């Protein structure tokens, strides 16, 4: 696989995580026609839900920039497009926000390995999410009382379709979910634990 194809495949993986499916590592047409990829991203953005649109900033696509009209070498164009696509994907992930039902898990998983390779500790401030990157930090706010906690995502789950997040016991206790077991929360991506 060429370096260009490898770079496109890496960006495709990141974009697929963000809900963008314009790139495909098996699609030779997409890798050879970057204009098609940008047009497909724009189409998907225009047809996306309001939540996705608010997460993706159209100005980051820069479709009317010099990138499209420049007459430079293909390698230079590919590099510029890959940088812009990576920026779109990163901004989408960094501006992540979600609401839904959170629960907590604890004693039965104490000492087991998490999806990130960490050892689960119910007394640490951690969480399980289905798709957020491992070891990223999120702020979880209990909608009923306004209490918040910042936790590290180090596991996958929950595996119940009506819940969006599983908190460690310590995190659930800090925002008042330990006694009720579940509660409505707002999840926001943050830069770090502070």
What does this structure look like?
Strands 1-5-2-4-3-6 form a 6-stranded mixed β-barrel. The termini are far apart. The protein has helices at residues 3-17, 28-32, 34-47, 50-55, 66-69, 74-94, 169-174, and strands at residues 97-105, 126-128, 137-142, 148-155, 165-168, 182-190. With 194 residues, it is α/β, with parallel strands linked by helices. The chain is built from 7 helices and 6 strands. A hairpin with a 5-residue loop joins strand 3 (137-142) and strand 4. The longest helix is centred in the middle third of the chain and has 21 residues, at 74-94. Helices cover 37% and strands 20% of the residues. Helix 1 (3-17) runs parallel beside helix 6.
Tally the beta strands: 6
Helix amount: 25-40%
Silhouette:
elongated
- Rg value: 20 Å
Distance between the termini: 41 Å
Question: Beta fraction of the residues?
Answer: 15-25%
User: Which sequence of strands runs across the widest sheet?
Assistant: 1-5-2-4-3-6
Helix/strand order, N-terminal first? HHHHHHEEEEEHE
Structural category: alpha/beta
Mean of residue pLDDT values: 76
The number of helical segments is 7
Low-confidence stretches: 16-32, 55-63
Tell me the major beta sheet. 6 strands, mixed, barrel
């Amino acid at each position: 696989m060429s370096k260009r194809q490898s770079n496109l495949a890496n960006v495709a993986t990141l974009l697929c995580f963000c809900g963008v499916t314009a790139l495909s590592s098996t699609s030779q047409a997409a890798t050879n026609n970057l204009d098609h990829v940008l047009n497909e991203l724009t189409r998907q953005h225009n047809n996306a839900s309001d939540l996705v649109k608010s997460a993706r900033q159209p100005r980051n696509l820069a479709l009317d920039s010099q990138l499209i009209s420049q007459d430079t070498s293909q390698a230079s164009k590919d590099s510029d497009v890959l940088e812009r696509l990576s920026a779109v994907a990163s901004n989408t992930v960094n501006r992540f926000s979600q609401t839904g039902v959170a629960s907590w898990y604890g004693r039965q998983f104490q000492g087991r390995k998490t999806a990130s390779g960490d050892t689960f500790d119910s007394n640490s401030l951690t969480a399980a999410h289905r798709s957020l990157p491992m070891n990223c930090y999120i702020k979880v706010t209990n909608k009923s009382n306004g209490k918040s906690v910042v936790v590290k995502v180090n596991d996958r789950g929950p595996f119940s379709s009506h819940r969006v997040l599983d908190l460690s016991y310590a995190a659930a206790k800090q925002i008042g979910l330990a006694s009720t077991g579940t509660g409505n929360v707002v999840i926001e991506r943050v830069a770090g634990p502070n």
